[in-house]
Specification:
homodimer; Hypothetical protein af1432; two-stranded antiparallel ribbon
């Protein structure tokens, strides 16, 4: 029993390292980059208050558990910037190894449970995984809007790229997807995307 | 419907400010102070993996929801250092006002639900609230041990104070309380508490 508790405590302490994994988005006040631990809290609570926009009969508990574990692999594998195509090479393998080491710190039953939650999130097949992915992609959109283009502008991202990246929002939460489209239209009008025709970078009509 | 979604989004964005509320504990690598958002993620996930040490038939979902909202009031009221008796004066009133403003941003049904969860956490009367409080107090203990006394040493805290502060761990999770006692004994032997007889501050026998 003590051995089991010790394994749980070792895992709990290892989790602390996720607070040092930086994402590309900043906080809404642009004061610093966001880390993956606080992001995970943010979207877990967002899933609770936005649950009604998910699929009918959504299991909110499993959704929240998935969001709590979804980024833990970044402790070993780091945060991969979603618009960097080079960085995404080998990402799945790196993260699978990370998941096995990290969840492997836990007693076997709990480790298997966490691994299954993470695989479920990544596969985006169940309604809960689809909704969890919606919220995970909706949150940085809000931060990028709050910071007038934020990471899109800093990294020269085009609307088409954002559109593709955010498409899973529509799979899990149609109402959020409609809302997302309006925000992206406004961002485009304000010239926050690369290659756009907004005020920042006027282009000739084709 | 759109008005309802907008209120939920406004709340989600306001939540972002919890990432800028600093606690007195540092990360386990002592690199910086921890913030209340990442702390909330940490203990929500800890509650999932430590649930078996809580009361029988624990409702893990409600425990996790409580932990996700338990520090939201700090957005307005700030983090009150638990060993600062002056700062705790008026804390309850400040936090109640904060809860009403912050959860009041949500549509009424959701706001009431969050307010009830926060009150439940604060009252420590239900098994879920007691277990949630156990984990909330156990986490900074682990960080203080990892940083060789951390905030206890920086602020000259005595073992008796820590003992009283951590006592709710025993109410919600007896196995964690036993484990806690061993950690506190080791910390005392190493002289990490003020007024102790450890190597840091030798005292004469009475």
């Amino acid at each position: 029993m003590l051995e089991r508790l010790q394994a749980q405590v070792d895992f709990a302490l290892e989790l602390d390292r996720l607070k040092s994994v930086q994402r590309r988005t900043t906080l809404a006040d642009a004061s610093r980059l966001e880390n993956s631990a606080e992001h995970s809290w943010h979207i877990a609570l967002m899933a609770v208050v936005l649950a009604e926009h998910g699929p009918p009969k959504l299991d909110v508990e499993r959704t929240v558990r998935m969001l709590l574990v979804h980024d833990v692999v970044e402790i070993d594998a780091g945060d991969t910037f979603c618009y960097d195509e080079t960085a995404t090479v080998g990402k799945a393998e790196r993260e699978e190894l990370a998941a096995r080491r990290l969840f492997g710190l836990l007693p076997d039953d709990l480790g298997q449970e966490c691994l299954a939650l993470w695989h479920e999130f990544e596969s985006r097949e169940t309604p809960e995984a689809r909704f969890a992915n919606s919220v995970d992609r909706f949150a940085p959109l809000l931060l990028n809007i709050a910071t007038e283009g934020g990471s899109w502008r800093r990294h020269g991202v085009e609307r088409d790229q954002v559109q593709r990246r955010l498409a899973p929002i529509g799979d899990g939460a149609p109402a959020l997807w409609e809302y997302t489209q309006r925000l992206l239209d406004q961002a485009e009008e304000r010239g926050w995307f690369a290659g756009g025709s907004g005020p920042d970078e006027p282009s000739e009509p084709a």
